[in-house]
Design a protein that fits this description.
single chain, 276 residues, mainly alpha, 68% helix, globular
């Protein structure tokens, strides 16, 4: 594996947009905390989207996609296409997990189901009443977005798309009735910060950057998550389409990997080596 640096000192426009997004989320987080009633008001505005019966399946599926198991499955084709994502995924997952599962029990913020009576808000999926801050699903969504932005060095358009998708995943947690806007904003910051730390560590640690073992480990983990997705209960039965989507993406990734790595004279013509 070649020695590849991510050049944090010279970010491309997509990475600059990501840093600006994280800074904006931090400002909004402080503002929502400081403005009396803003947390509850914003929650009800977004949660109202969950009261439309025709969209329940959509929002349930988006919530499911932000589950860690399904998100890992979505990473399979990207890890096969850009093996350098493997070490970033490992470090980012460790950082995000440590931060999220330290803050949740430490702060133990009550979720909307622990504050409101059932008739006062819309609930999609299972009900959870405690350990709201930060939103773990949002952390996962923005960790995924950050991995693709930094790992693939996406330009402005691709970065904007990834941040928009992750934002919709975060908003879905309020639509489902299980998180406050402060939880979602904090989750976005934690997810992007976790990837930034992973990039920083990888950029400075040559042994990790050049290690070969993270790739087969990442491929195995993401493949198991992808192929088992249809049988994994993530708490959103109305959004089971998301489970099958992940499985299809996983199968596509395995086909892509076979075409790329299987020996043959056509390999170099169809898929030039881009593992650097």
């Amino acid at each position: 594996m070649s020695d590849v640096r991510y050049r944090l000192h010279d970010p491309n426009p997509g990475e600059q947009l990501t840093l600006a997004f994280a800074a904006t989320a931090a400002v909004l987080l402080v503002a929502v905390f400081a403005w009396p009633g803003a947390r509850e008001s914003l929650f009800h505005h977004f949660n109202a989207l969950g009261g439309v019966d025709a969209t329940v399946g959509f929002w349930a599926g988006i919530n499911a996609l932000a589950d860690t198991w399904l998100t890992l499955g979505l990473l399979l084709p990207f890890v096969l296409w850009r093996p350098r994502l493997a070490i970033l995924m490992l470090f980012a997952a460790i950082v995000a997990t440590l931060i999220t599962h330290s803050l949740k029990p430490l702060l133990d913020v009550a979720r909307p189901p622990g504050v409101y009576e059932p008739e006062m808000f819309n609930l999609i999926g299972h009900s959870i009443s405690s350990k709201a801050f930060p939103s773990g699903h949002t952390v996962t969504a923005f960790t995924l977005a950050g991995l693709l932005i930094f790992g693939l060095r996406l330009r402005m358009a691709g970065t904007a798309l990834m941040l928009a998708i992750a934002s919709i995943m975060g908003i879905s947690r309020m639509v489902a009735g299980v998180h406050w806007p402060t939880d979602v904003l904090a989750g976005a910051i934690v997810g992007l910060a976790s990837v930034w730390v992973a990039v920083l560590v990888t950029d400075r640690w040559a042994a990790a950057r050049n290690a070969r073992w993270p790739v087969p480990v990442a491929v195995f983990v993401t493949a198991v998550c992808a192929l088992s997705a249809p049988w994994v209960d993530v708490g959103y039965p109305e959004g089971v389409w998301a489970n099958w989507l992940v499985a299809v993406v996983g199968l596509f990734g395995l086909v892509l990997g076979t075409v790329r790595y299987w020996p043959g004279p056509w390999r170099s013509r169809l898929l030039p080596d881009r593992r650097r």
